[in-house]
Each structure stands twice: as C-alpha cells, then as structure tokens.
Amino acid sequence: xxxxxxxxxxxxxxxxxxxxxxxxxxxxxxxxxxxxxxxxxxxxxxxxxxxxxxxxxxxxxxxxxxxxxxxxxxxxxxxxxxxxxxxxxxxxxxxxxxxxxxxxxxxxxxxxxxxxxxxxxxxxxxxxxxxxxxxxxxxxxxxxxxxxxxxxxxxxxxxxxxxxxxxxxxxxxxxxxxxxxxxxxxxxxxxxxxxxxxxxxxxxxxxxxxxxxxxxxxxxxxxxxxxxxxxxxxxxxxxxxxxxxxxxxxxxxxxxxxxxxxxxxxxxxxxxxxxxxxxxxxxxxxxxxxxxxxxxxxxxxxxxxxxxxxxxxxxxxxxxxxxxxxxxxxxxxxxxxxx
Amino acid sequence: xxxxxxxxxxxxxxxxxxxxxxxxxxxxxxxxxxxxxxxxxxxxxxxxxxxxxxxxxxxxxxxxxxxxxxxxxxxxxxxxxxxxxxxxxxxxxxxxxxxxxxxxxxxxxxxxxxxxxxxxxxxxxxxxxxxxxxxxxxxxxxxxxxxxxxxxxxxxxxxxxxxxxxxxxxxxxxxxxxxxxxxxxxxxxxxxxxxxxxxxxxxxxxxxxxxxxxxxxxxxxxxxxxxxxxxxxxxx
Lengths: 339, 236
Hints:
The structure holds 2 protein chains of 2 kinds.
Chain A: H1 7-25, H2 29-55, H3 63-79, H4 84-109, H5 114-134, H6 136-139, E1 145-146, H7 156-179, H8 181-191, H9 193-198, H10 203-229, E2 231-232, H11 239-252, H12 258-277, H13 287-301, H14 305-326, H15 329-338
Antiparallel strand pairs in A: 1-2
Helix pairs in contact in A: 1-7, 2-7, 2-10, 2-11, 2-12, 3-4, 3-10, 4-10, 8-10, 11-12, 11-14, 12-13, 12-14
Chain B: E1 4-15, E2 18-29, E3 33-37, H1 44-52, E4 57-64, E5 67-68, H2 74-80, E6 82-85, H3 97-104, H4 110-122, H5 124-128, H6 139-151, E7 157-161, H7 169-183, E8 187-191, H8 195-201, E9 204-209, E10 212-218, H9 219-224, H10 226-233
C-alpha cells in the first residue's frame, strides 16, 4: 500500500539532497569536518533520545558505549590492519560489545528507581574509564594513540558521505523503531511505568531493549568519531561526552529524534564558532562560560527544546486558526463591540 | 451457584512505614459488580493496588480463581485476566486513542478486534477522536478510554477505581450505562464514593473503614440499612 507523502517526507528528502550536494558546491575542509562531527554527534544524541526522550531513562553513563565503539575501532585498526573490511568489522564488534555491556548494565540497574539508576550508570562508566586508563598495553592510558585510517577514508569527502549514510540509516531505523508497537510501549513506560505494568507488560524487558539499542547506536557513533580524529584517548569515556549527548537532546527537543540532530548541529556549531572567536576577542577564550549561559537560557526559555517549541507554536497557531474559522463574523464583531 | 473469582483474606499492606490495610476481607463473585465502599482514605484504592501487585500485601492472602496471586508481579496479575482502570483515568496522554488501545491490546487477534469493535460501539466518542492524543480528551472521554482499554483484553475481572470522580452528572450516567453493559461480559470490582451510582449498579458491597473490612453483604440490604450508611458513609 502506498503511504501518503507528507511535508515531513519532503523536508527529509530536501535536507538530504542539500547535504549530498553540499560538498560539490563548497568543499571547504573546515565545513566538511564540522558537518561530519555534527552527523557523528547527531547519531550519539539520537541514541540518547531513545533512553531519555522515549523511555524516560536518565543515564549518566552513555559515554561508556561511545568509548567502547571508539576503542574497538582504534585498537583493531592499529593492531590488526587498516583495511576497510577491518574497519567495518570493528564497527560490528564494537556494537556487539556495547550491546552485551548495555544488556548486563541494564539488567543490573534498570530495576532501580531513576536517580539510583543514573548514579549506577555513572559508576559503571567510571569503571570503564579506569580500565581504559590502566590497561596501558592496549589503550596507552590517558595519552591515547594515533592510528591510520583505511585508504578510502583518507579523503575527507568520502568519509563525510560514509558518515552521512550511517546517519540516514540510523535515523530511519530508529524512526521505525519508535513507531513500532515496542516503541509505543516505551512511550507508555515513560509516561507511567505502573500503568504499563498493570496492562500486563514486564517493563524491565522494554527498558533493557531501549538500553541495548541506545548502547549499540552510541558505539557506532564512537567508532566513527575515533576514525574522524584518527586518534583515541580516555576523553571518549568521560562525563563530558554524556553531558554533550544530554544537552544536545534537551536543546533539540526530547522524544523527537529530529530534535537531537538539530541539537547536535547547534552545539557543534556554537562550540566551533565561539572557540574560533577567541582568536580575535580574548574574552572568548573562556567560551565555555558563554556556552554555559546559552544552555541555561535555552533550558529556561525553551524547555521543550527547539523542535518541541516549534511544534507547540504551530499547534497553537492551528488551534487559533480553527477557532477563528468557527466563529461567525457577525458574532466576532459583536464581541469586539462589547469589549 | 456463583463461583468466587477473587478472594482477599485478612490482607495487610504497608506503604513505606505506614500500615494502610489492616485486615481486608473481600470476595468478588463471577458475573457480578462487587462494590468497595468507604470514606476517603479508608483504603479502597490501596485494596485495588494490592490486588494488582502494585503495593504488595505484607500479610494475608489474595486469591484469583483459587490461585494465590499475593506474590505475583503486576504484569503477571494482568496477564492472568485482571484488568485495571486506575483512579484519574490513567491513560497515556502522549499516545493517540488508537495507540492507547493498541498498547493495551496484548494480542491483535480476531477476538481482540471484535472486542475493540464492541467497545467502540459502547463508547462512540472514542471512534470520533481515534487519532487524537489522549491528553487532548475531556475527562469523560479519558474515563471511557481507560475503561475501553481494560476491556480490550479478555479479562475475567475488571477493577475500576472511582469512575465518576470529577465527571459531570450526564457523563457519570453514560459511564454507569457502560459498566452495566460491560457486566454482561465480565465481572467487575468497583470502588466508588458516589453511593447513588454504586447502589444502582452494584450487586454486593464491602465496607472498608480505617483499612479494615467492617461489613459486607448484598447491596439491597445496605440500601435499606440507614444505620450502616450513616456510620460508615456519612449518608442519611
């Protein structure tokens, strides 16, 4: 059966077309690198949205999965070979490992109440960070290590297209997942876990499924991130990465999937611009302070995030338009007269 | 002779440090509307939550179809065939009416579709707002959706908590008609503050006061017993 073409489909195709054509119009190295970073963090933020936006789980340990992906790819490309097949295999291995870890961590922690869960994920993430620091023979500790990328990804534009393809595949897969019956149950869990249980669902299973999906997708983002830098160190497992994913999701709009993508774009662009301004204006050397202010303002004035606020404005506007159409002109004049 | 579907024997429930239920005895018979009555804070809602395993009993026993469900987790209790319509409707406001129904429908088989058809005839408003988000429905529509959701599975027993709460009298009338209609297909345990409503649709009653069962019997007897009504319900 043919599905109706909506403005959502059209804007998706239009956006994709722009992103595909962009490197042919403007092949600035800075722009390509910035967009690649946006795509990678967009994947990470979407994975976090599955937890926070669709299941209502606040995790402080999401960087652990990102780090697993980054280290798996880096170690395999350094220790085994620098071919494309090894790189692809490293993505699969990373996702598999992240899946197992998220399954075990989820099973152990998701029974707990949200704040205890958040604290435990932080503890697990810390544990992985310590392992990465101490297992120097493989990870080279805090110093990290560089590695060579497969031949075809030495060209930044080829890598840009590869990451874009990953982003599109992840977006479509996650979109279909949240629209599926399991996705609906996740939303029900987010709204009220007890109600969902009383409908006959073992909610823990669904939360673990969400955790596994979020973990594996975050690992993919980590693999791509490591390759984009051709370097990895313990920073990929720090709290900063989790906070970035959290803020991208909140600023873009939780529970929307597109929002976190937009959040990633806003934050990556802001980071890039503010740090760039430091060269001309010394005050921007402390750009992280301005960034903090931007976060605070966004959360205070746009609690629903960019997409959530846009949706709210549109639905308000539609409601007003509907009400206006329903009101007979004579009556509205009368009302004006009274006022 | 009618069979006992649900039996609570000397049930005690603690929520944190509070001892809420202190000896509830209750029976629900097959094909009947059994009403739990009592003043605000008497322990009626906790009794339903204890049956569902949401606030598990610390003492006593809860039996459904002669089987103890005291230690069963909530999802298993629901799967055994007990539907629950919580206080304040308990619908998922971000999901549409259709999605709310689909979430509740554990199996999308012919029988479930037939039941869905039946509830949509019972509550035509739901059909009208099929694609509307649950959060945008009126209080009465939310109540209807909540009841329809509990009915969509082949539940042998439905627990309904204060369905008339906060609703306009005309909507209460509709809800009552729906419960009477649902009674033809399933057994019902009803918690209700509105004695007028409870007395019109209930077959049996159990009075709870301070977390204990103080009286139970036939609803017709209670209607005539002014003393009981005055003492435990503040009516008359």
